């Protein structure tokens, strides 16, 4: 999505618009920054987040000195056109304190943990199967991964029927991990599953 700067209200903030920067995969809020018109235009032209630094009094492209860059996925204005949500694919950390986020030290809280798990599985795919269970499982192909999903599904059912809550949580975590591995072996991502859920939710709102 390309934004026309003329549709945004820079005047309300004295020439600046606040920008909430969010990890496109985990949806974790990484930082709050500001853009003037020139920073917005450069961000859209370069595909990398560029801001107006109030402390420096000028343009600032994230990563020019640290190498920790923010690759733009989308820019969405709010209903009044005086604030933006910038979704990015971060390379490195967003915070100058060498943390993933400026808002606390936790990595990918809540459901963002699923996206972080998916990214970790993708990284491990190229590891040595002799030292990585994930790499070894993926090397054995979809049938082996599917078998593990079946086994873990049974373990979840047994824990749900007769185990305690800790056992159920552990078995459910194993199932989710192996499901993500199976999706990866089939060249799929969890977003494919979420898309199905979204279509079903839309159909439920508009029954035929």
Walkthrough of the structure:
By secondary structure, this protein is of the alpha+beta class. The chain has two domains: 86 residues, Roll (Ubiquitin-like (UB roll)); 95 residues, MazG-like (Helix Hairpins), CATH 1.10.287.1080. It is 42% helix and 19% strand. It is built from six helices and six strands, in the order ββαββββααααα. The strands form two sheets. A four-stranded mixed sheet has the order 2-1-6-5, with helices on one face. A hairpin with a 6-residue loop joins β5 and β6. α2 packs across α5. The longest helix has 21 residues. The two termini are 32 Å apart. The model has no long low-confidence stretch (mean pLDDT 93).
Give a short overview.
The protein is α+β, with helices and mostly antiparallel strands.
Q: What's the topology here?
A:
Elements: E1 17-23, E2 29-35, H1 37-46, E3 50-53, E4 58-61, E5 69-77, E6 84-91, H2 112-124, H3 133-139, H4 142-162, H5 165-185, H6 190-205
Parallel strand pairs: 1-6
Antiparallel strand pairs: 1-2, 3-4, 5-6
Helix pairs in contact: 2-5, 4-5
Low-confidence stretches: none
SSE succession: EEHEEEEHHHHH
CATH architecture of the largest domain: Orthogonal Bundle
CATH class call of the largest domain? Mainly Alpha
N- to C-terminal distance = 32 Å
CATH fold group of the largest domain: Helix Hairpins
Number of domains: 2
Counting helices, strands and paired strands, the structural category is: alpha+beta
Number of strands: 6
- Helical amount among residues, as a percent range? 40-55%
Sheet with most strands? 4 strands, mixed
Q: Biggest sheet, strands in spatial order? A: 2-1-6-5
What is the rounded Rg?
A: 21 Å
Strand content: 15-25%
CATH superfamily of the largest domain: MazG-like
Secondary structure tally, helices: 6
Q: What is the averaged pLDDT score? A: 93
Shape: elongated
